[in-house]
Amino acid sequence: MNVFFDIAYAIPVELTRGKTKVRVRIEPVAGKTGPSLAGARVLRVKAS
C-alpha cells in the first residue's frame, strides 16, 4: 500500500538558536520498524 501524507513538527527555537546546521532524526516506536521517508524539509519562520 503506497500512502503518502504530510506531517509538520515544530522545532522549538531554543534548540536551533545560534546554529547554522540542525540534524533531525526519525526514530520508530520501541519494538516497531521505522517508516520509509519519501522526503523532508526544514523551513525557517520569519521573525515577526
- Class from secondary-structure proportions: little secondary structure
Strand content: under 5%
- Give the averaged pLDDT, no decimals: 82
Parts with pLDDT < 50 across at least 5 consecutive residues: none
| Helical residue percent band | under 10%
Could you spell the SSE succession in H and E letters?
Answer: H
Q: Let me know the largest β-sheet.
A: none
Number of domains: 1
Q: What is the overall number of helices? A: 1
Number of strands: 0
Distance between the termini: 42 Å
Radius of gyration: 14 Å
Shape: extended
Would you kindly provide a brief summary of this structure?
This protein has one helix at 13-16.
